[in-house]
Structure formats: C-alpha cells, structure tokens
Specification:
The complex is a heterodimer. Chain A contains eleven helices and one strand; from the N terminus they run H-H-H-E-H-H-H-H-H-H-H-H. Chain A has helices at 20-43, 60-67, 69-102, 108-120, 123-136, 150-172, 177-185, 190-219, 222-227, 235-245, 249-283; one strand at residues 103-104. Chain A is globular. Mean pLDDT of chain A is 87; it is low at 280-284. The longest helix of chain B has 34 residues, at 271-304. The model of chain B has no long low-confidence stretch (mean pLDDT 87). Classes of the chains: A mainly alpha, B mainly alpha. Strand 1 (103-104) of chain A pairs parallel with strand 1 (2-3) of chain B.
Amino acid sequence: MSMFKRNPDPMGPLDYSRRFSLRFTVAVTLFFLYAPIIGLIIFSFNDSRRNVVWRGFTTDYYVKLFNNDSLMLAFGNSLTIALFTTLFSTVLGALTAYILWRYRFPGKAVYEGGMALPIVIPEICMGVAMMVFFARIGWPSGMMWPFNLSAITIAHIAFSFPFAAIVIRARLESFNPELAECARDLGASEYRVFRDVVVPHMKPGLIAGALLAFTLSLDDFVITFFTSGPDTVTFPVKIYSMVRFSVTPEVNAASTVLILLTLVVTAFALRMQNRNNMLGSAAH
Amino acid sequence: MENWKRSGRAFFAAFTPPTFWLVTFFIVPLSLIWLYSFSSKTGVTEITLDWNLGQYARALEPLYLGIFWKSILMASATTAICLVVAFPVAIAIVFSKPTMRMWLLLLVILPFWTNLLIRTYALIAVLRTNGFINNGLEWIVVNADWALSLVGLGDNRIVGPFEPLSLLYNNTAVVFGLVYVSLPFMVLPLYAALDRLDRSYLEASLDLGAGHIRTFFSIVVPLALPGIASGIVITFIPAMGSYLTPDLLGGTDSQMIANVIASQFKQANNWPFGAALSFLLMYATFFALAVRAVLMRKEGRGDAR
C-alpha cells in the first residue's frame, strides 16, 4: 500500500500523517469499518448453508434471490417507493431551497428550523408519529398496488425533501441573482425566470438532491418498519425479518445487492456534487 | 435577498407545496402524538385526551428512568470511544497530502451510505458464537495447543479447550455496534475543526520546546474545542435514539429508550405512554442541539475577534 511507502524527504515536525502510530491507527480503523462489510460480501458467494467456513465459490444464492418471489416483490416495492419519493422530494426540495434562498419573510428562522426538524429528530419518534397518524386518519389500507405503498411513500417524502433542499440550496449559493434581474428586465415573468434561468443553474443540485432522496428512501428501515403493513414489505424490512431469523448466505446476497445499488447511486451523486463545487468556485 | 411582498404570488406558489407537506405529513403527526402524551388509555383501543401528566409521571418510575439512564450511559460510552478513536484518524487525514486526504475522507464517509441494517447484520456475522472472531480465536487456541504438544504440553493442559466467547446479545455488543455505525459522525466534525486550525500555532509550540503530547493538549484541543463539542453532540444524538442496534445486537437487558417506545406502540399497545416517552427523547435531542448551537455561536464570536 502506498500508505506505507518510504518517503525520501526527512520528516517534518508536523508530518503527523507520516508517523507510524497514526498510520497504524488509521489502518486499524479502516479495517474495523470495512472488514465486516467485505466479509459479508465475500460470504454471499460461499457454498455452505451454515455460512461459517469458506466452502467454495458459488453464485447459487444470487440465483435463489432472483427466484424468491416475496423478496423480489419487496425489492420492487422499495424501488417504486424510492422513485416516487425522489420525484416529489426533488420538486419540494427545490421549492424550499428557492424560497429560502431568494426571499426574506417574517418567521423565516422558525421556518428554517421547522424544515430541519425531520433531519434532526430521532427516527423512532418520526416512525411512531407516522404510524399513529395514518392509523388515526384512517388511511385506506389494502388498496391496489402501487397505491398500497402510498403511506410509506408519503412518510419517505416528508423526511427526504428537507435533505434535498439543503443540497439544492448549496448549489443556489453560486447563482448570480443579477441574471434573474436581467431576465425580469427583459420582460420574463416570475415563472419564466424560474424555469429558464434558475432551474438550469440548479440542475446539478437537483440531480444530487434527487439521488440523495433516492438512497435515503431505499435505505430507510425504521420509519418504513412503522408505516408498513404485512402486504407492503420493503427490501430493508424483508432483510430485517430474515436477519432476525438467521445468518444465511441469502441474506448476505440480498445485502450485497442493496450495498451495490446504493454505492452506484452515491458515486454518481458525489460526482454531481463535485461538479457542483467546481462550477461554484469557478463562478466566483 | 428580497422581501416576499415584492413578488407575493410567485412567493406563495413556491411556498405552499413544501409547507403543506411539512405541516400535514410531519407537524400534524408529531402534534398528534404530543396530544396523545397527555391522554389516558381508557379501553383497549380508546384513548381520551384529558390533559393529564400521568404518562410523564409513569416515565419517571425507576424502571423507565433506569432505561433512560442506560441509554445515556451507552450513548456516552459510544461517544467517548468514538472521540478517542476518531481524533488520531482526523489528525492523520488533516496532515496528509491533498489527494490522499480526499481518498481517506471518502473511505471514512463511504460506510455511511451502506444501509444501517446491513452494517449491523455484518457485525452479527463477526460477533456470533460461530462468527469470525470466535472462529479466529478457536483457530489460534487449537494451533497453540498443537504447537505445545510438540514440546509435550499438549492435550489442552496449558491453553485449555476452546470456549466460544459470548460476544453478542449484551451491552458490550450494543456499544461496539454503535461505535461501528457512528464513527464517521465523529471524524467529520473533528476533521473540519482541525482543517481550520492555524498550523503556525503548532509550529510555535513545538519550537518553544513543548512536546507533541503537550502541544496536543494545550494547543490543538483548546483550539478545536467547538469542533470537538460539535462531534460529541452529533455522535451522541443518534446513538441515544438508536433503535436497530440494540434491537439486533442487544440482549434482553440492553433495551434502550427507542426499543421501549417501539414496544409501547407495537406489543404493549399503550400509545399514550409511548408518546410521552417519544417526546422525552425528543426534548433530550433538542437540549443537545441547543448546547451545540450555543457552542457554535461562541466559536463564531471567537472568529470575529
């Protein structure tokens, strides 16, 4: 590893990153963070039901996964929920970011605090609140697919769009308001300015916010657990019920699929955000 | 920024949808359980709002006070371990070359994007009786015994037969799991604080004859204090309210407050009491956030000077 490569320059007093003790701590910490996950992925290819000792390579458990109807249904549910959540969260997040960025209005500090609430309150509190809310207002259950997923989707949107708003607002900071003034002077309506001047600039932020909402929705367990019923199982809820039961290669395979999916989406989001920052600093 | 009145209609067009969503699907549900926390359970499914504080009084019974206390202890232990582990990591990241820094930061953040449930499950595979740690230990014991038998001390006379350690389903497992999932929460604020630090102070301290340890405690720690405080709060809050980790890794006696709340809403079916507990947890969270806000403001003033 390049981390341990010998550096020809003499070590300066502040070259802490070149001290063995610190490198060792970093290496051990990273091992601690990654070894369990990597072990989980490796053992999803293990040819043994008991999943204790390595018995040889197999992809059987992935085949089994794709033939497991209830798991695939849960996966489909998760993707559907995530898709609708992404759509709504991006729009709501963009509007929130826009008004917070552009306007001064009475009670703005309180409004911002309210928008931050879904981010800061413990998940369990939001989970039980959602459960009580949908039970109390008598939200219809047992509807046709995909409408039976509406309660979960609504809850997901409620906690994801403030996150999306933060990402989109960060992007808006690099927007030059004079451009919007210009468009207005040239006779564009407010809607036109928003659609043709502000939104194009927002775009990388919108994409990053959308991807964030997607992963948040796909990964959520606690809030979903309290809003889902027996016929609206999502992928994480399904994995949870399998985990409670036992440690099997199927669970490892299912987990690996979810890890890969999240990683791909996140890598994409990071790229977008990077471009965001680069464009942002170039504009100044 | 302009006054909303200048373009009132556009403002309301953008303002209404997110506000509607936040109020209807977040504030109203929270208010609902807030009302429940002042209600009494009058039947199997009937709940009457009579504005009594009975649920909160019940939350102060020794049993529940004990669970609150236990949650605080576990979250504090988690925070303390994270702080001790994250500090050297943050220092190493801050003082490395820019490209290396990017990679290390990415490596620290990446587990964030792995599902919490999956990370906890991965730990079960590590800690269980037949898990990686116990299997590794067994291998060491068996081989040590074999090595000793070469000099005539075998048959478990010295090392003894291998007994798997019970690493799962106890409080230690919960703290271990909480450290595992919250470590990035601590590294990032520490990194941000150390990154802003003026290095000439460190050089001056070292030039004037203080050792690295002394420089750390009398220069780095005081200057990074707001970042440290922020890291502590950011790690403590989710640890305190965690549900999944104690649920999956804990035993019968390692229930934390979130697990009690969940069981009040599911098995015990006592919504008013669960609601009161939720709000106590939320107030604790707000208190921690207020502490952080005060500390951050102090830091802001320090910069202005």
